[in-house]
Amino acid sequence: NAGVTQTPKFRILKIGQSMTLQCTQDMNHNYMYWYRQDPGMGLKLIYYSVGAGITDKGEVPNGYNVSRSTTEDFPLRLELAAPSQTSVYFCASSDPFWSGNTIYFGEGSWLTVV
Amino acid sequence: GIQVEQSPPDLILQEGANSTLRCNFSDSVNNLQWFHQNPWGQLINLFYIPSGTKQNGRLSATTVATERYSLLYISSSQTTDSGVYFCAVAERRGGSEKLVFGKGTKLTVNP
Lengths: 114, 111
Hints:
The complex is a heterodimer of chains A (114) and B (111).
Chain A lengths: L3 E4 L2 E4 L5 E7 L5 E7 L5 E9 L2 E4 L6 E3 L9 E3 L8 E8 L8 E3 L3 E5 L1
Parallel strand pairs in A: 2-11
Antiparallel strand pairs in A: 1-3, 3-8, 4-5, 4-9, 5-6, 7-8, 9-10, 9-11
Chain B lengths: L3 E4 L2 E5 L4 E7 L6 E6 L5 E6 L3 E5 L2 E6 L4 E6 L8 E11 L2 E6 L3 E6 L1
Parallel strand pairs in B: 2-11
Antiparallel strand pairs in B: 1-3, 3-8, 4-5, 4-9, 6-7, 7-8, 9-10, 9-11
């Protein structure tokens, strides 16, 4: 059981480049999330999805796009990378929290924009 | 939205000491979770504890939902306990829900 898998683990981008962070989960969770964590800070929600075909903005969505075509996959797209997007990105999945479920995180993707 | 505040922001201990970390939240919740982020960045679930007390080895947690706080106790701390501890609560809006995280408590346990 792999859980939540993110790729790549490390990436260096030049300003203005674009890339996609891949995320897949094998727990059949309906809910998936993308968080970013800046150095020394907590986690901020970028986008989330409550099921295939449904996505919604979190706290810090600017500069990012997502799609959810299947239950398993939730890729995060960075368009026109900027230094402010240098961060660690975590994908996560869960069943509904109000049913007493916990969240499962991937191992993180370290992104540097230079 | 829900506000989540953690204290203290930083804590330095000698190995073997006990500690208490606090999480305050601004609204009633029925899902509160504690996480440990190790020095390599990995986030690990510690407790799901919307109310009451749970124990897991040297760690225990208590949530008093009516007073909107939760406490994480670490006893006989070890260097492997170092890292950042986050609490998070579930916020439900318009049929969807998401976790709101506090800023964390950075714990350093020295040998």
